[in-house]
Amino acid sequence: MNPFEQQRPIPGVAFIVAVSSGKGGVGKSTVAANLALAHAKTGARVGLLDADIYGPSQPRMFGAIAQKPRVIGENKIEPLFRYGVKLMSMGFLVDENAALVWRGPMLFKAMEQLLREVHWGELDYLLVDLPPGTGDVQLSLAQKVPVNGAIAVTTPQNVALADVKKSINMFQQIKIPILGVIENMAHFLGPNGEKLEMFPRGEIDTYMKLNDIGKLGEIPFHPQLSAACEVGIPIVESQPSHVISKQFIETAKALRARLG
Ligand code: ADP
Question: Are 149 and 181 in contact, with CB atoms under 8 Å apart?
Fold first, then answer.
């Protein structure tokens, strides 16, 4: 059977975008949360599906730990509506430790539920925060819905590049277009706004050029970005005119332009 035979759009959802990373800790979830908010702030209807089943962090980032989404009607789940974003996370449905042992069929079922049993309503963009790396969640997403494209979040060093390459290769194999790279912790902003490099810059630019992959945005390292997520109000929500928030708004615009 063609593995993509099960693919069906989600009624009402215009674009489905996967937010991926080659490895953990590069800031994928932080970027996904703030990017979703940047879309909301600029007038788009946006949903964020936290499919990072093994370590869902969006409930914390949105200050929604211990929240339980309501069940409506027979078997539809109403996503949370937080800071203008429709939010659903595996973390709302199951205990984090329970999902750790899930493999293939369980994950396929969970993804089905998150995509189809959630009442997403009308959305311009549904961002899907994937687990890092390449695995069953990525595959089940590709098999179930027509994903318009994937964003690869990475830091600029070579140690992250090796993993991002694997992740991009996987998306190419499962026929999901790469929309571009978001470079996180790209640099540190000096007192006069100058860019100070934090990490030795690897060959990411050469790799992107050779493979015709564009950059959607560059997010500097900033302690307030991290602090805002810790308290459950991401920076684009708490300080929309902060220099970092502006970067996220620019990145959201670049993504929209890329999707057309
Ligand atoms: P991932 O989803 O890739 O595992 P997270 O989004 O959880 O990574 O981020 C890992 C840690 O790095 C978090 O503590 C987060 O607040 C912090 N972080 C991410 N991006 C930045 C940044 N640009 N500046 C400062 N801290 C950041």
Answer: no
pLDDT for 20 beyond 80: yes
Contacts of 73 (CB under 8 A, 6+ apart): none
**Atom of ligand 1 minimally distant from the CA of 220:** 23
Instruction: Report the pLDDT value the prediction gives residue 108, as an integer from 0 to 100.
Output: 87
Token pair for 55: 């370590």
- For tokens 């409930």, the residue is 59
Q: Let me know: does 42 contact 162? Beta carbons within 8 Å.
A: no
pLDDT tens-digit series, residues 162-194: 999 999 999 999 999 999 999 999 899 988 889
Determine if ligand 1 sits within 6 Å of the CB of residue 247: no
Q: What is the per-residue pLDDT for 1?
A: 60
Please report, as a single letter, which amino acid is at residue 119: H
- With the most atoms of ligand 1 within 8 angstroms of its CB, the residue from 163, 199, 226, 247 to mutate is 226
Length of the chain: 260
Does 131 contact ligand 1 (Cβ within 6 A)? no
